[in-house]
Amino acid sequence: MTVRSLPVRGEFTAPSHGTLAAALRAQMPGQSWSDLRALCSSGKISVDGERELDSARRLIGGETVSWNLTAPDPRRTATRPDFRIVYEDGHLIVIEKPEGVSSVPYERKERGTALDLIREAWRHQGRRAAATPLYTVHRIDKDTSGLLCFAKTRLAERGLHRVFQQHQAEREYLAVAHGIVRPSRIESRLIADRGDGLRGSTRRPHEGQPAVTHVEVIETLPAATVCRVRLETGRTHQIRIHLAEQGHVLVGETVYLRDHTRAGRALLPAQRLLLHAGTLGFDHPVTGEHLHFTSAPPPSFEAELQRLRRRRES
Questions:
Q1: Residue 141 is among the residues annotated as catalytic for this protein
Q2: Residue extents of the structural domains in the chain
Q3: How does pLDDT run across 202-239, given as a tens digit for each residue?
Q4: 84-313, CATH topology level
Q5: Higher pLDDT residue, 246 or 312?
Q6: Active site residue: 54, 73, 82, 141, which one?
Q7: What DSSP element (H or E) covers 200?
Q8: For residues 166 and 279, what is the distance between their CA atoms, to the nearest angstrom?
Q9: 3-class DSSP state for residue 189?
Q10: Are strands 209-220 and 92-97 parallel, antiparallel or unpaired?
C-alpha cells in the first residue's frame, strides 16, 4: 500500500449517503481505490471511534471518519511456536494448524485464521503475502490441531478437490476418548440436524451423507483411551460425532455431550479438545508425486495426555 501525501492522523465528517471508500476518496483525491481499500483492511480507518475494516460499509452521512497511519494492523498475527509450514511449492502449501484457530474465516471479519498465519509467515519471509491466492480444499475443526492443506493455484484447487471429495487422501488423527474404546469400524449417515440443532447420525437410509471411521486402540488409560483414527470419508465433525455416539466422547469435547451427560457420566477436565490431525497423504494434483506428511501432537496435547497418565499412577 502506498499512501501519497497523507498526514499521519486526521478526521472528517462523512458528507452524505454512500460507501466508506467513496467518502474517503472525496476527502483524499490523491489516493487510488486500492490504496483506500488497503487503508481500511489494515485497520487504519475508524468510523465514530470504532475501527472499520470494510471499505464497502454504507454511511448515512454525518459520521466522524478518522484515520491513523500508525494503528496496528489486526491481520498481522504474531508468529506462533505451534504454527509451522510443513511443505510448500508453487501449487500448494501444507501447515500445522494450532488448536483454537479456524481453518478459514467463518464470519466476514474474523481474523487470526490459518490463512492469516500463512500470510503472516510469508510477510516475515519478505514475500508479497497478498499476491498469492489461497484456496480451501479441506478443513479441520477450530479446536483440532494438525495438518491442513491449501491450494495456491486454480489447477491445484481442482485437483485437490477431487482428491478429498473422492476420499483419496490418507487422513489419520490421534484422539483421546472417554472410557474403554474397542477397535472398530463405525459407519453411519450424517445429517446437519439430528433434531436438537446439532449434527449427528440418522437411521433413515436415504438421508444424510455416508461416513466411515476406523478406530484403532493405542493406549488404555484408567478413564480414557488413546486412539488412532482413520477417516475413510471426511464429513464435518465426523470423528467427534462417531465416537460420541459410541459412548466415547472425546476428552475436551464441548458440543457432542448429550448422550454422555444423559447417562450421568463425568467429564474428564481438559484445556483443549484432544484431537490432532497427525497424518496427511495424497498424490500431488499437478506432478502426480505422492506426498506423505506426519505431525507430532503439540505440547498442549501432550500436557493433557501426561495429566491423564498421571491419574493411573495415582
A1: yes
A2: 9-68, 84-313
A3: 988 889 999 999 999 999 998 999 999 999 999 999 99
A4: Pseudouridine synthase (3.30.2350)
A5: 246
A6: 141
A7: strand 200-202
A8: 18
A9: strand
A10: unpaired
- Cα three-residue angle 215-221-222, rounded to 5 degrees: 130
User: pTM for this one?
Assistant: 0.73
User: The domain 9-68 belongs to what CATH superfamily?
Assistant: RNA-binding S4 domain (3.10.290.10)
Quickly state the pLDDT bin for 77 (edges 50, 70, 90): very low
Check if the beta carbon of residue 184 is closer than 8 Å to that of residue 229: no
Q: Which residue has the higher pLDDT, 273 or 259?
A: 273
Q: What is the spatial distance between Cα 208 and Cα 216, in angstroms, rounded to a whole number?
A: 26
Q: Coil, helix or strand for 25?
A: helix
Q: Residues of the chain with pLDDT > 70: what percent?
A: 94
Which of the four pLDDT bands, split at 50, 70 and 90, describes residue 107?
low
Q: Hey, what's the cell of 121? A: 509467515
Residue 290, by phi and psi: left (phi above 0), alpha (psi -120 to 50) or beta? beta
- Furthest-apart CA pair in the chain: how many Å? 71
